Hints:
It is built from 1 helix and 3 strands. The protein is α+β, with helices and mostly antiparallel strands. It has a domain at 10-51. It has a 3-stranded antiparallel sheet with strand order 1-2-3, with helices on one face. β2 and β3 (38-40) form a beta hairpin. The chain is flat. The termini are far apart.
Amino acid sequence: MPAKFVLANYIVRIYRFDRKNPRRIVGFVEEVGGKGKKAFTNYDELWDILSGSKSIKQQGKKE
């Protein structure tokens, strides 16, 4: 069975980063055409948001 790919477009807003340690970044991710945004406080959280198959829920609401 062939694999299915789901494409999504995101807006990534980076508000703060550490030049000495670029993995330390803070910002929000919004899915284009979707509602809500998801916050991240480091590179790993950003990657989890972008690579996850779940759509972004409104910030502050439980998933």
